[in-house]
Design goal:
With about 210 residues, the protein is an alpha/beta fold. The protein is built from 6 helices and 10 strands; from the N terminus they run βαβαβαβαβββαβββα. It binds the ligand O=C(O)c1ccccc1NCC(=O)[C@H](O)[C@H](O)COP(=O)(O)O. Its EC number is 5.3.1.24.
């Protein structure tokens, strides 16, 4: 099981996260309406942390994403909007980075929508449908994932909280393509700042 802690931006909080939890990835949100938006002014203080950095984008341009990859030293790009398979492919060729495509899950899931992306992206991420695109703090019906038909690995996201630890373990035991989890607002003291001891408690329990 792998861990991505999303919505980080405070350098002291990132330092604590990296030292205490050592997550597999840290997510930086480059979507201006988000309360977790990361300004370019923070690039110098963030880029040298020794943790894999995933940039989260919602319908951003190729130029904007390429600029952030360079400025922040991103290792992966998470496409959290309506980006096409062609766009994902061009981005992968241009940046050489790992590309993740997000699907927002509502009452039902149409797995056919994923097919055009499956030979392009490195990973899918399933988050709860919301008008704000992400960071809703709400879970979706995980039973839908039992029908996931592809070999491509995916991350589970959307409102994950400490009380879900056992259910997450059960789900992963049933679905080998589930490579990890993405946590965010349920571990915050305020938008963009995580409660590191809570993250540690959760992760210490889950990774065993
Ligand atoms: O977190 C945000 O503010 C956000 C806004 C717009 C697009 C994506 C966003 N977050 C990306 C993530 O990967 C979150 O971790 C994911 O949406 C789950 O968040 P939460 O429901 O708070 O656990």
């Amino acid at each position: 099981m792998r861990l991505k802690v999303c919505g980080m931006r405070d350098p002291d909080n990132i330092r604590d996260l990296v030292e205490v939890v050592q997550p597999d990835w840290m997510g930086l949100i480059f979507y201006p309406p988000s309360p977790r938006f990361v300004e370019n002014a923070l690039a110098e203080s963030i880029r040298n942390f020794r943790v894999n950095k995933v940039g989260v984008f919602v319908n951003a341009s190729m130029e904007e994403i390429s600029e952030k990859v360079g400025l922040f030293g991103l290792d992966a790009i998470q496409l959290h909007g309506d980006e096409s398979p062609e766009f994902a492919n061009m981005l992968k060729e241009k940046t050489g980075k790992s590309v993740w495509k997000v699907f927002l899950v509502g009452e039902e899931m149409d797995w056919e929508k994923l097919l055009p992306y499956q030979n392009i992206v490195d990973c899918f991420l399933f988050d709860t449908f919301s008008k704000s695109h992400g960071g809703s703090g709400k879970t979706f019906n995980w039973e839908l994932l039992l029908d996931y038909p592809l070999p491509t690995p995916f991350m589970l996201s959307g409102g994950l909280a400490i009380e879900h630890a056992d259910a997450i373990k059960d789900l992963q035991a049933k679905i080998p393509q589930m490579q990890g989890i993405d946590i965010n607002s349920k571990f915050e003291t305020k938008p963009g700042v995580k409660d590191i001891s809570l993250v540690r408690k959760f992760w210490d329990y889950l990774k065993t």
